[in-house]
Amino acid sequence: MAHRSPSPSPAPVDSIDLLAPSLCLNPDAIADLAPVQPSEHNLLPATFPTLSWSEQSSLHHNVSLGEKRLCYRHRPDLRSKRAADEFQLEELQQDIKLLPSQDQQIISHIWSLFGSAPASHRQLVLSGLLTQCCVPQLSFLSNHLQPLLRIDFLTILPPEISLRILSYLDATSLCHAAQVCKSWRRLADDDVVWHRMCEQHIGLKCTKCGWGLPLLEKKKVRAKRQEEVAQSQDRPLQIDTSPSSHPPSPSPSISPSSPSFPSRRRSASSDLETDSRSAKRARHDSRSPSPSFDTSDYPAPLFQSPVPPVKPEGTTKRRWKEIYSERLIVERNWRKRNYRVKQFRGHTDGVMCLQFDDSFLITGSYDNSVKVWNIETGECLRTLTGHALCVRALHFDEAKLITGSMDRTLKIWNYHTGQCIRTLQGHTDGVVTLDFDSRILASGSVDATIKIWNFATGQCSTLKGHNDLVNKVQIYKKDFLFSTSDDTTVKFWDIASRTCLQTFTGHVGRVQCLQTSGEALISILANRRHGKFAALEPASQDSNNAVVSRARATSPAYESSSSDSETRATRSIVVTGGLDNTLKIWDAETGACLNTLFGHEEGVWSLAFDKLRIVSGSLDKTIKVWDTESGECLYTLSGPEGPVTCVGLGDTKVVGGSADGSVFLWDYGARM
């Protein structure tokens, strides 16, 4: 009998052949299907008929070998990864060795015939075998076919499609996928997948899982501010100073008497008075550390911004998975209330204002001083003195600190050295609030007026409209301004035309605090019973419609229905707090009240918020943490022994100042 040699090994496979059909004629399959190959020791007996396929079938088979693409199970680049198949073949070899030699030869011959058969013949053989199988044998086939039909789809698909599939998984599933094998880990840890994950969660709430992660981008924000400061001279704010529309009025004189908070002030005209002729102008005198703001025919800039520092070179790029993990730890700390409390003591009287970044904490107090703290170590770096009465407001950036006091002045400081650069005078009563950007400074006073100071030109103009002291001002989108007052109203101003565009009414007590979302859009679950009853009181509908439309056009809103009683709105918002013990969330463009937050037992004195949380400080000696989207009170922070007069919010920190002179910091960024 002639010796039947094994089939030759296949030629190298072209890359196109790696796209596989469900059935293949690769000669390597014969090796898998025939664990016992014919040899000199296991030749078939003479009585066993020698079978072979016809010449036509063999020719068709040989042609198909050169044209047929490889299936998933027989791709050469994947054979080494199928450890399970190799283990099953070893078990099969052991079982065959237990059979008689002749039975082994017959089984080996049958497998060899099947392995060399064309595709159509294989299907006929299998169909015939299935018709002869009993139920136990069919059950055996079903159990063994299911795992064999599983494929590593991430390996055989193009990387772009695999990454797209993984981008639909949540973070937990991605971590599980990374534990399957090295190839899956390489794909599951790819920056493309985790960048999409960060886009869905960082700085906003994911619509699928409801989780949102903090930004943690203070350094990037500071770098952007430095660029804005450097370019601030390119776009000076043009404020209308035409005497025909707004005649100038005499500059208010400064009274030596001590300022106090009146319960009610006389009604002020809504017309704006121009102080270009009579307001005092600042002039820098190098011989004096804090020159007064004096008049001048050629007003000088209030503050010269230093050149921004050069960014360091060679910074390493972090992977997006590492960025996501870092923020996830912080968010879990927020949710589980894992924080470390730090206390700053040094003021001898109540702390009325504060601000912090990732390096400094600056506080102002009734003891007439301003303290600069190292926020990490708690060390008081320096104390700024110069105000004659208590410091009620402060705001700082990378270059300067501006403070407002009840002595009716504002002071510009270099808080890195403690030097007072300039003193601004113009209000006729104590300064309660201030805000500034790269171009202008806005200040609100007990005299019920708001003054706008231009850094570039040194000019000052006045906004009038409130009937009582102004508690809070904030610049909005560079050209507009919000203000709150003891007259229970919130006003929306156009700075360039110096007119009040809208008045938001709804609080029944004095409105003490306010913050806007600025350019950011915030997702809010607005209660529909609030959305229809926001009272709008335009200063002049005919003249202001164009300005209001321009303001609204810069902030598109997106709405989606979530339930019968609530609708999700993504828009610019304003959050206010008042002595009526409530916080209100307003649509910044329409003035509609989107939600009212109840929970404090006494008046709300201060607040701060971001896209995920609102924190509010109250006279009831507590700080409450709220969910920005739903308005739900998450929990209450306690610690101060006196009323909480000021709060600050960061990605990982909450800071609160109290009337007892203490400052508390809750740090959520530390690992527990």
Automatic annotation (TrEMBL):
PROSITE patterns: FBOX (PS50181), WD_REPEATS_1 (PS00678), WD_REPEATS_2 (PS50082), WD_REPEATS_REGION (PS50294). Residues 224-315, 545-565 are annotated as: Disordered. One of its GO terms (cellular component) is SCF ubiquitin ligase complex. Residues 552-564 have a biased composition (Low complexity). It comes from the Eukaryota. This is WD40 repeat-like protein. InterPro entries: F-box-like_dom_sf (IPR036047), F-box_dom (IPR001810), Quinoprotein_ADH-like_sf (IPR011047), SCF_subunit_WD-repeat (IPR051075), WD40/YVTN_repeat-like_dom_sf (IPR015943), WD40_PAC1 (IPR020472), WD40_repeat_CS (IPR019775), WD40_rpt (IPR001680). Residues 151-197 form the F-box domain. WD repeats lie at residues 344-383, 384-423, 424-463, 463-503, 572-596, 597-636, 637-672. GO terms for molecular function: ubiquitin-like ligase-substrate adaptor activity. The keyword Repeat applies. Pfam families: F-box-like, WD40. Keywords: Repeat, Ubl conjugation pathway, WD repeat. It comes from Linnemannia elongata AG-77. Residues 229-241 have a biased composition (Polar residues). One of its GO terms (biological process) is SCF-dependent proteasomal ubiquitin-dependent protein catabolic process.
